[in-house]
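=== RUN LOG ===
request id: a7f3
mode: sequence -> structure
chains: 1
length: 451
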Amino acid sequence: MINFYFLKHPRFSKICNIAIIILTYVMIIVRFLLNEKGRVNPDSIRYMRQANMLPIIDNTTAPLGYPFEIWLFTNLGLDEFWSSKLVGLIAYTLMLIFAYRKDFYFKEVVMMSALFSFVSVFSYTMSEAPILPFVFFLLYYSKQTIDANIPGIKSVLMLSLLLIICYNFRYSALFLMAGLGWFGLLKIKTRYGKYFILSASLGLMFIIGFKFLYVDYFNEDYVNDFLNIGVKPTSLLLTELWQGLATTYNPFVHIADPSGGIVNYGIYGIGIINILVILYFVVKSKNTAFDELLLWTGFVGLACSFLVQYFYSVNPIDYRLLAPFSLSIWMYYFKKLIERFGNLAYWVPLGSLLTGFAFTYLSKGNYLENRKEIKAFLKSENMENTDILFYLKSREDLANIRAAEIISTVNPKINLTFSAKDTLNPRVLTPYRVDSKLKIKRNQFQKFDKK
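=== RESULT ===
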């Protein structure tokens, strides 16, 4: 009875919120410090190189939102790597402050952001982190539109502007436009249905202009180079889909063992059970119009993320790629959990933080020590501030790219080359040349940490 009363006490919720927020900040920082390469990947190299080149724009034609944010903080004295980590922390902070000030899904945001998958997103040098607060703002103004709290013209302008901002972080924001447009079509007979359709249409008009005025200007072959029908067979895509969904909606572990094993049954099993619980809430609950918007935005985003793989080469579906779309479904899910179980719902984020810390500790590397080694190496080679070429056998030779990834966190002016004749140049780095002179401390359970 005492425990039951304690759970009902209003201070319990406040204490849990504060504790989870503090632990989430700590976990975000620990997540990249206890990683051998500071939570970067090959795309991170491109983002940091783009930021380093600004205001000059190269021909990669990736959205400039994330590199621009990194560049802003480099003007305050940070390098590109630390700027990218600050961007992730600020993205999390913006969501918290906005949710608290607007009294909009604050508990849900606290719980959702503490999930190990979102901790991993905020700690990653990737564009999913900075897009999340703008997706959250988009959902808030969508609710204001449904509730008629803002005029129609202002609704259209705010929603369109936020969609455009999201697109300038990730091209997959096109799927957010599709989600809002689809919801508008379903609600076409309502007062607000046409506002969502118009907002999505304005977003699509921006994309068309963006393609001809920006993408084609810097790289007219971009679309032809990346569009490729039948990249993967349907059987493989369906397998990757259910695995990606199962790990995305596993609140505790979002990374499966790529080599297989019995542990994956538990990881996928928990995720599938959680998906079934979400579907149970969808079917059995009395959903508001905004609940429906949250669900449709997520479902359409997930569906488009799957279908685009038929003609656009992207990484297999996982928690990171789906984060902008899983966000709304997680918001819906935690709202329902709180309605059904009250403060008991806090055990989900607390359990996720505990699991995440255990995984991070067991698979720990030491980024700061590896960074020190790389800095000493680049200094000895007089490559601290020069352009660097790093040789790989092919784009699929990811096993040997770790040295390049760590180098990019110190000197982002690094490009990959796949021409063997370039290795004749003593200024071109190779995996062997770097590894033979360095003692990089690698993750003890490297096979688990492929993301």
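=== NOTES ===
The first helix runs from residue 2 to 8.
Residues 445-451 have pLDDT under 50 and may be disordered.
=== END ===
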